[in-house]
Specification:
About 30% of the residues lie in helices and about 30% in strands. A five-stranded antiparallel β-sheet has the order 2-3-1-4-5, with helices on one face. A hairpin with a 3-residue loop joins β2 and β3. α2 runs antiparallel to α4. Pfam families: MoaC. Belongs to the MoaC family.
Amino acid sequence: MLTHLDSQGRANMVDVTDKAVTSREAVAEARVRMRPETLQMIVDGEHPKGDVFAVARIAGIQAAKKTSDLIPLCHPLLLTSVKVELSAEGTDAVRIQARCKLAGQTGVEMEALTAASVAALTIYDMCKAVDRGMVIEAVRLLEKQGGKSGHFKAGESR
């Protein structure tokens, strides 16, 4: 049984030594709501701090690689792929989608969620001088494949 508790009820890192190495992939998303003029400035490439999407993409990728340094009891993983896609959604939001892959003994859900979250925080940081009312929302796991627990897709019942 996998648990973060040892026999004395203390928190510890799950032992995955005996788990098989399998291909694993996770996709997470986040949204940043903002004023339409803020989004337009980003899309038009007119933000005074530079290319907001490029910086957020790099921040998300770096965060995925450092997830075990940020989330207690999270395994350090050798990710084989991290992709962070950003796009305008409607007139007042940026949608962030992060996809992480590896061949390993444990999943990459936390890495994908961390990548999406940090990309959203980076957008907030870069744009807060022009729009302090931005809202980061809807951080969630969209899909997970591989491993013992099988396939998960948001919105589908199991």
